Amino acid sequence: MRKAMIIVNPSSGKEQAMDLLPEAERILQTFHDEVLVCETAKEGDAEAFARNACELHYDTVISMGGDGTVNEAINGLAEQEHRPHFGIIPLGTVNDFARALQIPLDPLEAIQILPTENFRKADIGKINNHYFMNVLAVGAIAEASYNVSTEQKTKLGPLAYFVEGMKALATKTPFSLKISHDEGTWEGTAFLMVASMTNSVGGFEKLAPQAEVDDGRLHLFLVKKISLPGTLNLFPKLYKGELQEHSDVVYIQSSSLAVSSSEKMVVNIDGDEGEPLPFTASVLSRHLSIYVPPNENEKV
Ligand SMILES: Nc1ncnc2c1ncn2[C@@H]1O[C@H](COP(=O)(O)OP(=O)(O)OP(=O)(O)O)[C@@H](O)[C@H]1O
C-alpha cells in the first residue's frame, strides 16, 4: 500500500496552492493507493506533518508552498529513521531549492514530473539543532529580508529582496567573525557572510555555479569590504558567477563550520530569522531523495 502526503500552504506566494491542489492529488493517486492532504495554518505545521509522515511510513511527502514550507518539511524529515521521497511544487516567490534541483518553476509542470519517479539525492544542512537546505547568512543584507512584507513579495517577487538589500547597504556596518572550517580558521571583519548549500540564493542561480545539491559542502562567501567602486563591481561578478574571484571576497568550501562573533549577530536560515551566533553547521550528505525531472540526473 503506497501512501503520499501533500503538505499545502494556502498562503504561499501568489496564493494559488488551493487551485492547484486537485491536480496534485489526481496525479499522486495514479501511483499511490492513498493521498492525504494536510493544510498548514501556522508556523510549525509543515514540520509536524512531515515528521508524522516518517513515523507512519509514508512513501512520499510533497510540499506545495515556498521555501519556508520546504524548510519546515525538511526539518520534519531530517534524521528520521524512515524518510519518504520528497517532492516540491514551487509556489513561493523565490523557490531556491526547486531552482537548484532544476524542478520546473511552473507548478503544473512540477506536478507532471512526479509519476516519472525520477529521484536525486540532496544534501541537507544542519545548524545547531535545526536543518536547512539553501543558505545561512549573517549581516545587514541578510537581515533586510525580514523587512520584506507578504504584500511586497506577492507584488514584486524576488525584486522585493533586492530593494530591501539595497536599502540595507546604505546603513552598512562591518562585524567581526571567527570561522573554523575543514582547512583551518578565518578571522576578520566582514559586511556579509553567506554559506550556500546550492547554486541558487535569493533567486540568483549564479552565486556559486559550482555548487551541487549533493557535493557534501557549504560554499562560504565573506564580503570583507563595501566601498565604491568595489561594490559596483560585485554585481557584474555575481551575475557572471565569478563572485569568489572578487578581491574583497573570501571563498571557502567546507563540510562543516563553526561561526562566532564578538558582536550580537543573528543568523538568517533559508531566508528566515534564525538564532544568535555562535553556531555550528554541518552537511548531512545525500540525505533526502527528491523528485526531479527525468533524464537530467541519476536514477536512484
Ligand atoms: N495558512 C497559513 N496562513 C498564513 N501563513 C501560513 C499558513 N500556513 C503556513 N504559514 C506560514 O507560511 C510560512 C512559509 O511560507 P512560504 O515560504 O511557503 O511561502 P512564501 O513566504 O510566499 O514563499 P517565499 O519564502 O518564497 O517568499 C511558514 O513558515 C508559516 O509560518
Number of domains: 2
In DSSP terms (H or I, runs of 4 or more residues), the helix count works out at 9
Strand content: 25-35%
Helix content: 25-40%
Instruction: Provide the CATH architecture of the largest domain.
Output: Sandwich
CATH C-level class of the largest domain is Mainly Beta
Ions, cofactors, ligands: which are bound?
A: adenosine-5'-triphosphate
How many E strands? 16
CA-to-CA gap between the ends?
Answer: 21 Å
* Helix/strand structural class: alpha+beta
- Sheet with most strands: strand arrangement: 6-5-16-13-8-9
What order do the helices and strands follow? EHEHEHEHHEEEHHHEEEEHEEEEE
Describe the global form.
Answer: globular
Mean pLDDT: 89
- Main beta sheet, described? 6 strands, antiparallel
**CATH fold title of the largest domain:** Tumour Suppressor Smad4
Pick out the low-confidence regions. none
Cα radius of gyration in angstroms:
19 Å
What does the model show?
This protein has 300 residues and is α+β, with helices and mostly antiparallel strands. The protein has two domains: 3-124 and 286-291, Probable inorganic polyphosphate/atp-NAD kinase, domain 1 (Rossmann fold, 3-Layer(aba) Sandwich), CATH 3.40.50; 132-285, Tumour Suppressor Smad4. Helix content is 27%, strand content 33%. The protein is built from nine helices and 16 strands. The protein has helices spanning 17-29, 45-55, 67-77, 96-100, 107-112, 140-144, 150-156, 159-170, 230-240, and strands spanning 3-8, 34-39, 60-65, 85-90, 119-127, 130-132, 135-139, 175-181, 184-190, 192-196, 218-223, 249-254, 256-260, 266-269, 272-276, 279-291. It is globular. 43% of the residues are buried. The mean pLDDT is 89. Bound molecules: adenosine-5'-triphosphate.
